[in-house]
Amino acid sequence: MRTDELGKRYRRTWALQPCTLRIPAGRVVALVGPNGAGKTTLLHLIVGLATPTTGAAVVLDGVPAGTPLALDRVAFVAQDAPLYGRLSAAETLDLARLLNRAFDRRRAERRLAELGIPLGRRVGRLSGGQQAQLALTLALARHPELLILDEPHARLDPLARHEFMASLVAEADRDGVSVLLSSHIVAELEPVADDLILLTGGEVRLAGEIAVLLRTHAMLRGPATGVREVAGLPGTPVVLRGPAVAARADGPREEHLVARLPADARTPDGWTRTGVSLEELVLAYLREPPIHIGRGWTG
Amino acid sequence: MTVLSAQAPPAGSFWRSMVGVTWLQHRATLVSALLVYVGVGAAMAVQGVRVHRSYQQLLAAGCDVPRPTGNCPRLLDAMGAATGGLSAADAALLVLPVLLGVFVGAPLLARELESGTFRFAWTQGVGRRRWLLGKLAVLGGAAVLLSAALGGLAMWYARPIQAAGLSSRWQSGPFNDSAVTLSAWTLCALAVGTLIGLLVGRTVEAMGLVAAALGAVVAVNLLWLHSALLGVGARSMPSTPSSTGLGTLNTAADRAAGPPLAGAWLLRGWYIGPDGRRLSGSEVSSLWDDIAQAGAGKDPGSWLGEHRYTYWVSYQPADRYWQLQLAQAAIVLGVGAVLVLATVRLARRR
């Protein structure tokens, strides 16, 4: 999947600043950012529910996003999994079968049976979690090459979220499906996602392979001088983000900074270096007013 | 840049699929519509059988419609009473498309937009444009079947009443609800409803707006269009004035008139004086006073001839009826087609 200067403006405000992204096939990509960051806009542009103001998106080796050819191979589960409340689960399967060239009804029925979702029940009477699972089932039964999910676990409780993610990744793995999913809950994405796109204020703040991002960022702890610049890093390009933690309640005041710091870079004098978790990394990038480090890939 | 779908499924399976989709999503509405149409149709059929029977008795009694004698006035009165039912049927037939526009057209997209389900429907493999056109075609096809059946029934119902000279197929009611024009108007109403539903995006508001818009169209356009069309390419010829005026001529006496006027629709009548000038309204009044004084009211034709006055009428000949029917249908369908195109374009950009 690729976007070239893809942007969307509503009147004066950019819901999504023009961004250029490259996402290799076969990955699970997490699109992260606070509410209103432009996640849904980006996903809607990719599935053709919105038309771009600038640029273009391309999926699956050069198919323009949103065309029937793309829709045939891309499955999308929209936020809140909108389905027709008056149809039964079985009728919803019928509908999806009629609206798609390929639809594996038997697999869908089996999955619903495993999840304990009664086929005869009306969708409007299923719980939020069951509706989300039904929507995912419909998407998987299409055997898509790219599966896009917008806040798939917004309506699930924590345990159900965990199970949902596990089953999503297991199914996607089995078929070799590329997955792009948005969320504002970072912790649950860390174990399953390969790549990260961080959006805030309609702008891509960070994008890259998660393993690489974690390797090239570090948590620095040092004296709380109030100085955001860390002196004495000869020859090392460092971008500072923080404070991730401003102070500790019990000990002496110290500052925690998340720095973009390659693994082989020397730790600055007076600071100690530890690894950073994905959540800390994301929070640091979200908190600090943007220090522009170039758009798109930063890895 | 757009790429056409390379693996569009075969057309037959596409239409079968869209029939299935439409049925799944709209069966409650479709069944309700069918019940309403069947109900109206049944009422018309019962009335129609009665009217046809009266007309058979009229024929069997050998009644001369312009000069009824014996039992004939009573039989004609029975026929006349049935014209009330025909007017009611005409009105109902013009309102039914409004109902389809409001209850089928308006929610078609408004409900999807309101409930968010468009995000499901428009991201399926079939694609947004084919989803929309497929649904419109299936619903439109069902609407055409229903309205053509009722329109045909209305034509059958009206035939004896028209044959007895109590009504004319050229009148705006029957003209607008023949199988041809009613089907076109129904499709147009469906298109109006769908477009407004897309623009408004909320079901209830859209239904209200569609009702208002289509009500206005019925009240103004169909009636205006009818009279405008009937003036197009009208012919004129010298004739004999009737003391009862043009309206009556159009129903009762047109069969009695000469061959060019049989089954024709008379539009206007005017007098040309000896000097070749058209007479004004006051001149016509004084002319009629002269005719009355001369005692020639029974046969004004020869009196007018002697005094070198001529009476002219403009008319649409009977054989232009279906041309004008098709013209009206084409205009209404054209408007509907433009609306459907606009809907597809706007839905794509949404």
Alpha-carbon Rg of chain B, integer: 26 Å
Would you count the extended β strands of chain A for me? 14
Mean of all residue-level pLDDT scores of chain A: 79
For the termini of chain B, the CA-CA separation is: 18 Å
Outline of chain A, from the CA principal axes? globular
Total of domains of chain A: 2
Physical arrangement of strands within the biggest beta sheet of chain B: 1-3-2
Name the helicity range of chain A. Answer: 25-40%
Strand share of the residues of chain B? 5-15%
Description:
The complex is a heterodimer of chains A (299) and B (350). By secondary structure, chain A is of the alpha/beta class. Chain A folds into two domains: 207 residues, P-loop containing nucleotide triphosphate hydrolases (Rossmann fold, 3-Layer(aba) Sandwich); 72 residues. Helices cover 28% and strands 28% of the residues of chain A. Chain A contains eight helices and 14 strands. In chain A, strand 9 and strand 10 form a beta hairpin. In chain A, helix 4 runs antiparallel to helix 5 and helix 5 runs parallel beside helix 6. The two termini of chain A are 18 Å apart. The C terminus of chain A is likely disordered. Chain B is mostly helical and 350 residues long. Chain B has two domains: 245 residues, no CATH class; 82 residues, no CATH class. Chain B has eleven helices and three strands. A three-stranded antiparallel beta sheet of chain B has the order 1-3-2, covered by helices on one side. In chain B, helix 2 runs antiparallel to helix 4 and helix 6 runs parallel beside helix 11. The chains are: A alpha/beta (299), B mainly alpha (350). Chains A and B meet through strand 5, helix 2, strand 6 and helix 3 of A and helix 1, helix 3 and helix 4 of B.
